Amino acid sequence: MLSEDCILKDIYERIWDLARPYLNTRKNDIHTEISTGLAQLLLGQEGGDEDIVVPAIILHDVGWKKVPEDIQMKAFGPTATMPEWNRVHEVEGARIAGDILRKVGYHEDKILEIQEIIKGHDSRKDPISKNDSIVKDADKLWRYSKIAVQINEKRFGLTVEQGIERLRRNLEPWFLTESGKRMAKEEIEKRAKESMV
Q: Of 3, 13, 18, 75, which shows the fewest CB atoms inside 10 Å?
């Protein structure tokens, strides 16, 4: 008989497979893979429900596929001129997530919670649950990874120093969990050391 962990791992793989076509824009495939690993780390330190957090983080940015590519760069980041499109990706992402989760036979109550998290993962400042806090922190924590710093330098026209300063400045406003803040501080120090080499 298969363990619950094996069954969940299989379902997460199926969710990934169905999400993949929606993640091939805006480097969301890279972002989602890193954020999913970070969510797992945060779950281990903060608690939370893996069967909510993992599908939510895998699916949180699928809605960007519904935002025209020529508008995407104007919809997010420090130079956003069309932030209303960021909201579109949340709403569309929640809808797509529901479709994907129903295809894999996910429990309806869990689908509704996951959709609610996705629907406000950027726009809603106050978390609705511990699961929401973990998803929000994993989503933002990726920005502190080496690859994200490199991607965002190019995206936003920042120097390494400007990028690191932006990350440092946003530690308090961005992070909701103590583990998220601590991990972000550790990553900033790594990026600062790398920039001196």
A: 3
